[in-house]
Amino acid sequence: MTRPVMPSRRACLLSLFGACWPVTWVHAGRQIEEPLSHAVRSALSAAVAAAAPPEPLLPTVEDQQGYAQWQAASSQRLARYKKHPTERQEFLQTLWYEARRAGLPLSLVLGVVQVESAFRKYAISSAGARGYMQVMPFWARLIGDGDDSRLFHMQTNLRFGCVILRYLLDREKGDLFMGLGRYNGSRGQAAYPQAVLAAQQQWVHAAD
pTM of the entire structure? Predict the structure, then answer.
């Protein structure tokens, strides 16, 4: 069976960023700390440090309509996890911004969040992974400012998660199966990638 593959966006990532429920969730794994070259570490550090408001960049009427339709459809699905409309809107706006910034499909990031934390902001796994995208604290030391408590901040968590996922997908040459497994710390095992890809299908939209 052919695995799904995403085009590499390493060059885009480096160019864009300026460098060459506190309970255990069943699918949350232990992201593995790997040695990073200086260039990669610098690029990832720049990627998570660049501050910008999560405002949609919608230059055309068609873009604006597509975003509004995606927001409405996604908010309806998200209501089972987040009851307050304003909270859903802020979360989706931030996820849209960070996913687009990292060159990731919106549905893929939503699938990861659903599987990793069930959209719980303060989720902590048995391995210590934190927040919506279950980011391990060592990433705050490797590419952040060292303050792992900030991984509970919505935009910080989504930014770290999206940047890390983009990096790992690039490492696997766009192979979603292997990249997702690497993100979860279960590279080569089927359970986690299959769960994310199944969840992703619930969030696919024309604006993805």
Answer: 0.84
